[in-house]
Amino acid sequence: MVTTTELHYQVKIPEPWTHHVKIVIKVERPQQSNKQRFYLPVWSPGSYMVREYSRHVRRLQVVQGNGEFLYFEKISKNEWEIDWQKSDLKSQQNTFSIEYEVYCNEVSVRTSHVNLTHAFLHGPSLFMGIHGWEDKRLELGIEFPPCWTKLSTSLKDISPKREKFLYEARNYDELLDTPIEIGNQFTSGFRVGGKDHYLAFLNLPDNIFGDLSRDIKIITEKVANFWGEIPYDSYSFIGHFFPKTYGGLEHHNSTALQYDPLEVCHEEGYRDFLGLVAHEYFHTWNVKRIRPKELGPFNYNEENYTRMHWLTEGLTSFVDDLFVLNCDLSTDDYFLKSLAKKMNAYIKTPGRFFDSLEEGSFDAWIKLYRPNENSRNATVSYYLKGALAFFCFNSLLNVQGHSLREFTSELWDRYKLDPNTGMTKEEVLKIIYSLAGVSIGEEFESFISDTGELPLEVSCERSGIEVHWHQPEGLDWGCDLKSRGENIYIENIRLDGPAHKCGLNHGDEIIAFSGQRLQSSILASWQKSLKKGQAINLLISRQGFLLEIEVAPEAMPKEIEKLTISSPELYSKVFKSL
Questions:
Q1: Smallest Cα–Cα separation from 318: which of 433, 201, 247, 404?
Q2: What is the 3-state secondary structure (H, E, C) of 434-467?
Q3: DSSP-based helix, strand, coil % in the chain, nearest 5
Q4: pLDDT tens-digit profile of 109-126?
Q5: Among 163, 383, 416, 525, which one has the highest count of C-beta atoms within 10 angstroms of its own C-beta?
Q6: Which domains does the chain have, with CATH numbers?
Q7: What is the pTM of this model?
Q8: 304: Cα within 13 Å, side-chain hemisphere
């Protein structure tokens, strides 16, 4: 194939039912060295966990332009090195190719998935980088079965003929940051601000609750208007509707979304999906451009640590439902219900007393994306606490006659002054101190740096919201009782709850109570028969051994029953002015 660049990637999917994608990278030999290193990323920007994509690589070989095989060896878990001096060559060629296959059979927004119905290509899991070539312009050619009729991506199309699929990326970062969907997906589009926006949805349900194309356009217009300008030439919304999935991943001028097709067919699930759309689209400004200093340029070979996910995800998680509300695609009741749900989740997370937002951000690589049964006792999500921190901050701003839009406008102005350099915590705090004053600046800083309680109830009062508390019926075990068939298991023990105090363990199986066999068929009626503080003798099985433990369930802890509007004028000022 004739190429107009020094670097060309070719994707081939000859047998999609095998889940394998073939990659060929053609590149020039380095002039000043007999060695060349190349690598496959270990993580994806926006998803902060080392995922070891290289474990899916097979049939790797390096070939000269004349067909001779070159010597190379693996030097780390995801890196290889070519050594021309160790190759028995008949002639020295100016070009070589890196050829390999990748197994793609994991459904998520941060992995590639290929089968008979479609191919979703996620760059970091597929495309190897070549040391020293990351800033070079490159071409990407794609070949796929003729039964697939559509290819959706925000990469620049430079195909010389309609039957060819040839694209261009300005550099390796752009190649990795632009997902590709191939198949027979539903496609549509609209224009906002003179820019083309494309929709590509796989398995879009016929009985979806709303008009998705219309509603995504409304959200796009609202968010773009909030920021005041559109920083891309075109944008793609790529979505998959697979059972029991939920997720989104932001990209420079596109997003990948996944959602349960049954959930999107009723009103509440549909609104949640629109919130996901708003969340990922808002990231176009907040994180893909406005970003912590540590998140770009990326090192794809190891963790990239930041303590600022309270900004990247906290701010975004606060405004996503707000945009849906301000687009008249949701209701006050639903917005307040969602806010109450977040507050209750926060209150029921003992880990908030041990991890600050900054600490949780830094440890995302080992905590947030790798949860276990003790996670809620040890840490708190920066999505959850971050959203509530900005809820509190927003109420403080409004008391001073300011708005969140003023704050984000300052962030955007700072980005445009130096687009190539991310922000520091000190720069963000300087904006807050300048905008809102010392007292609010210090209070916000405590939200992100300390483990003290957020002033949720006071912030509700400042926002025209009344909090209604109640004590749920039933008894609190301080854990979850889960049925598997007729067997009952202890799961997710809460710190300082009854189960924790008496020594029950996650994974314990309850065999009997007071000498009577306990099975799932009588679990509900048994629990109703118990009284607060009543000591119960349990026979449990732990790792194959039987033992007796006495536990005394307590009254359920208080929680927020609902939030209601106490001052419509104040509420509208705080939440309906985006």
A1: 404
A2: HHHCHHHHHHHHHHHHCCCCCCHHHHHHHCCEEE
A3: 35, 30, 40
A4: 999 999 999 999 999 999
A5: 383
A6: 7-182 (2.60.40.3650), 185-284 (1.10.390.10), 286-466+559-578 (1.10.390.10), 475-555 (2.30.42.10)
A7: 0.96
A8: 21
